Amino acid sequence: MPDNAQQTTDRAIPADESPTVTRAGYGPAFSPTHPLALAPVGSPPHSVDGFVAAFLAELNTKQGVALSHSSTNAQYLALAGTVRQYLMARWLETSRKTHEAKAKTVGYLSAEYLLGRQLGNALMASDLNEIAEKGLAQCGIDLTTLRNQEVEPGLGNGGLGRLAACFIDSLATMDVPCIGYGIRYEYGIFRQTFVDGRQVEQPDTWLALGSPWEFPHPDESVQVNFGGYTEKSVDADGREKTTWVPSWNVLGVPYNYMVPGYLNGRVNPLRLWSAQATKAFDLSIFNAGDYAEAVRAQTFAENISKVLYPEDSTPQGKELRLQQQYFFVACSLRDFLDHELEEGFDLHDLPSRIIFQLNDTHPVIAVPELMRILMDERGFDWEEAWEVTHQCFAYTCHTLLPEALEVWSTDLLGRLLPRHLEIIYGINDRFLAEVREAFPGDELRAGRMSIITEYPERGVRMAYLATVAATKVNGVAELHSQLLRDKVLPDFSALWPERFTNVTNGVTPRRFLKMANPKLSDVICDAIGSGWVTDLERLKELETYALDDDFLAAFREAKDWNKRRLTTLLRNRDGIDLPDGHLLDVMVKRLHEYKRQTLKLLHVVSLYEQVLSGKLAPADLTPRTVVFGAKAAPGYRMAKDIIHLINRVARTVNADPCLEGRLKVAFPANYNVTLAEKLIPAADLSEQISLAGMEASGTGNMKFALNGALTIGTDDGANVEIRRLVGDEHFFLFGMSEPEVAALGARGYDPGAYYQGNAAIRAAIDLINSGIFSDGDRGMFESVTMSLTHHDRFMALADFESYVAAQARVEERYADQESWTRSAVLNVARSGYFSSDRSMRDYLRRIWHTQPML
Ligand SMILES: *Cc1c(COP(=O)(O)O)cnc(C)c1O
Q1: What family is it from (predicted)?
Q2: If you compute the radius of gyration of the chain from its CA atoms, what whole number of angstroms results?
């Protein structure tokens, strides 16, 4: 142990100091002299000595090890515990302040939160980076090593879960009271490995080495009921009353995570629920003497929060998934009503205190749940309950794909939640009466709009239920919101045009620029100061620097540094060698046919084919490394076949000496937030190539532009807005527009004609079918090539020629490094709009009608 470490231990936090309590139950008032307090924002905070003392105390008393014998993991846990101490005073203070002000809170209901690592963000938000680095150095510990020890909580699949994480970061930073509600999955998104190029899923054991960022509150557990039946009775006033008699229940245990605002002292809660068996549940079985059965019952209850469903965009109608949805939503409503509101609060005023934002349809069962609580437990009549419920919910739709819209069979729903199904029928009856009144005699319309569908079996269309219940319904980019009105919910937008609105997605600039790209952040700060971190539109001030040679050089140096950092990472992590000086062409996102990884792959195969057949001299290729990163849903056969094909193409191309130094394909496994933070800052070219009208927004596209990559993309999702803001000449547009896609679909799309008619397409597909990538096995990738030539639902072949032409424009521009860098700078300068802070301002103004506390 270093000498100085010993000296500082006696300055540990005194245990007997009692905090000032101004209001029972809500913790200490903020006091700058309190040992856990942070110094006021803006002044030089904390001290290195104090940090070392707290760190060693954590290491000794919580981890039970001496510094000299501590593992990296013990050190990481102690560091996390230390940072948590610094945040704790502000967390308690935030809670006290919010309760005291009786401020309206945003209840963000999301089945997924793709948080990414916590340590770096917590250090940044509390301005402890430098102090921690120096303090740890005194102990002979490297901060980066400890940061790399953290396993990210992967409690989401992709964009939707990451969006929730960006939003709660922005709300905390903007001083808006928010509780994020979700599920504490014991196993998050699977860890992807490759075996012979095929995806193999490993369980994500993110809790195995300790979970220092959460604190459970079993004392605030709530009970959640399932099953059974309902009973009607008439009360003393002659009113009909319904009682739900459930048949089983579980306990929801809250685990709190701190969501720190950036340097502003606010720390909002993220409350994730874990399922446990209730005593009542197993006691009866224990009493019956069947010990084994009782333990099995426990396992059954705990299964509810066991694992995240790894489907992205194509939900499976599994019973356990519906259990998960109701479980977390019932816990969250109960928690808010019983623990966040004052005793005796009049629930008629509930909309003045909460707005629940439904992140897609996963939490929509909250609507009948609130109705049930108000009517069956609080004596509201239907109209009163509906008035309150309608004002308390807003709904975000995230898709246009019909197969992504959740429908729960009434059979399953009625078995699991009989009272809720009754209420849904009640909502539907009253809603259809309203439709018939607005459109008399239009029975076809009433049939189309019914929340209940009869095909293929009777089911509840959750998107319709959400739309009927919500005060506002929003899409996630301008084009998507338009298509939502025109194509997905046209009858609803005709009935309630004012209910529909748009909020274009955003990403947090703290994680995805300041933290992920420290070099570029420094370059930006040197030029325009640091105000952009919380006011991203100020990046506009960089526009004048796009003509400044020194700035361009510094910008390029930052990009090169990021590439070197990535090179080191991929060598150590995946055994992949990135060549120097290549155009880094990156396509990272979930694997889905609509995103069209095959279009990118066909481009690679086509280049290779042209070299093999002598049509193209290797020396004429722009040196390029194509990086893929993508997980496929384990049950999505085609997506997994495409992953296999990408890996096989990579193997062949990378081994062929004639492409040495010219074309390389890299596919690091297990794309997640941690990898995104390293990949995106290094990228030159961002691939956003979905079929127009299919990608609701995309947020990966925003992260890349913000980090100075140029986009090659279709007119889809937020690409439309990115292109409009950065300017046509700094964006490589290709492909059909959405109306052109619709027109081609209506005419009848024949991919075979493109295969026959376009020599490059035919040669590329034939090369795959030749067996060159599959050790001579010509059938190995038949599923992929047959699908392309016979169905091609997402029209990759129709856009191929345009895509290749756009890639040629990319290469031309890249040859002029100065012009490329200038465009990259302008992409950064003009991406301020895509801050999730701006998204939150839009939600506050258009949907939530609440304000920052400040
Ligand atoms: C941003 C992000 C996504 C979303 O990417 P899209 O390109 O918008 O689909 C998915 N996964 C991770 C890990 C991300 O960081």
Answers
A1: Belongs to the glycogen phosphorylase family.
A2: 28
Q: Which entry of 97, 472, 590, 648 is annotated as an active-site residue?
A: 590
**Would you list the DSSP string of 131-192?**
HHHHHHHHTT--HHHHHHHPPP-EES-SHHHHHHHHHHHHHHHTT--EEEEEE--SB-SPEE
For the stretch 469-516, pLDDT in tens is 999 999 999 999 999 999 999 999 999 999 999 999 999 999 999 999
pLDDT tens string 665-699? 999 999 999 999 999 999 999 999 999 999 999 99
pTM for the full model? 0.94
- Most informative mutation of 163, 513, 673, 839 for ligand 1 (most atoms within 8 A of CB): 673
Q: Looking at the structure, do residues 130 and 174 belong to the same domain, yes or no?
A: no
Is residue 629 domain-shared with residue 766, that is, in the same domain? yes
**Parallel, antiparallel, or unpaired: how do β-strands 229-234 and 240-245 relate?**
antiparallel
564 occurs within a structural domain: no
Both 18 and 90 in a single domain?
yes
Determine the distance separating the centroid of ligand 1 and the alpha carbon of 158, expressed in angstroms: 5
Q: Is 306 a catalytic residue?
A: no
**533 assigned to some structural domain:** no
506 in contact with ligand 1, CB cutoff 6 A:
no
Q: How many domains does the chain have?
A: 3
CATH classification of the domain holding 247:
3.40.50.2000
* 616-669 residue pLDDT tens: 999 999 999 999 999 999 999 999 999 999 999 999 999 999 999 999 999 999
CA atoms lying within 13 Å on the CB side of residue 650: 24
Does one domain contain both 126 and 225?
no
Residue 366 lies in a domain: yes
Residues 78-137: pLDDT tens digits?
Answer: 999 999 988 988 999 999 999 999 999 999 999 999 999 999 999 999 999 999 999 999
Confirm or reject: Cβ of 676 under 6 Å from ligand 1.
yes
Instruction: Establish if 455 belongs to a structural domain.
Output: yes
Provide the strand spans (E) within 670-723: 685-688, 710-713
**Structural domain of 80:** 3-101+118-149
What are residue 240's DSSP bridge partners? 234
User: Virtual CA dihedral for 386, 387, 391, 394, nearest 10 degrees?
Assistant: 30
Say if residue 730 is in the same domain as residue 760: yes
